[in-house]
Amino acid sequence: MGTNAITGAGASLLPGTCSTSLPAAINGAAPYSERSIIPAPALAQRLISMPRNSFNKDTVDDFIGIDVAKARCDAIDPAEFPEHEEALRTLHRYLERWLGLREGNPFDL
Fold first, then answer.
1. 2 neighbors 11 (Cβ within 8 angstroms)
2. Helix (H), strand (E), coil (C) string for 6-18
3. What is the pTM of this model?
4. Cα–Cα distance, 7 to 9 (Å, whole number)
5. Mind listing the pLDDT tens digit for each residue in 18-50?
6. Rounded-to-integer distance, Cα 8 and Cα 33, Å
7. What distance in Å separates the CA atoms of residue 81 and residue 76, rounded to the nearest whole number?
8. What is the rounded end-to-end Cα distance, in angstroms, of the chain?
9. Which of 79, 87, 89, 92 could make a disulfide contact with 53, Cβ separation 3.0–4.6 Å?
10. CA–CA separation, 55 vs 98, rounded Å?
């Protein structure tokens, strides 16, 4: 049983809903300490609309190798590809971290 963010009353979860304690900035409802009920499609839309870039070391290594990927990435100016600039910069950070050229930062996405 969850707590309704509007009334504060107990409410059971209905099919197609998701109980969560996401911050108000994300779910538009209750702060961390309160529980709210958000329709699952609305929650999915909010989470899907936030793009994130992530790369797998084993996949890159198997495909072309970390060193080759780093050399190719160094030859690309991310600013020349504005629609992919963030992904290219993220890949560059990952490659440097995998090669030991950069320390991992927990705030790097």
1. yes
2. CCCCEECCCCCEE
3. 0.53
4. 5
5. 444 444 444 444 444 445 555 566 666 666 666
6. 12
7. 9
8. 34
9. 87
10. 11
Q: How far is CA 46 from the centre of its chain?
A: 11
Q: Which residues lie closer than 8 Å to 20 by C-beta, 6 or more apart?
A: 27, 35, 36, 38, 43
Written as one letter, the residue type at 98 is: W
Q: CB–CB of 35/20 below 8 Å?
A: yes
Q: What is the DSSP letter of 67?
A: H
DSSP state of 36: E
Q: How many CA atoms lie within 13 A of 24 on its CB side?
A: 7
User: For residue 109, which amino acid is it?
Assistant: L
